[in-house]
Design a protein that fits this description.
mainly alpha; elongated; 53 residues
Length: 53
């Protein structure tokens, strides 16, 4: 088996996964409230906004 074919055949794992891409903002906010975690905003629509400046 050649190397590229070998790489395609081995099992893969997600090594880097952002929370924002896996959980709805509303779910994240609900979990935070349930566990008394203060979030940077109460506005769920803006929860995943990031300052890019």
């Amino acid at each position: 088996m050649d190397y590229p074919q070998y790489l395609r055949s081995v099992p893969k794992a997600e090594l880097h996964c952002h929370f924002e891409g896996t959980v709805r903002a509303a779910t994240f906010a609900d979990l935070a409230r349930r566990h008394d975690v203060t979030l940077p905003t109460e506005n769920v629509a803006r929860l995943y906004d990031h300052d890019t400046a």
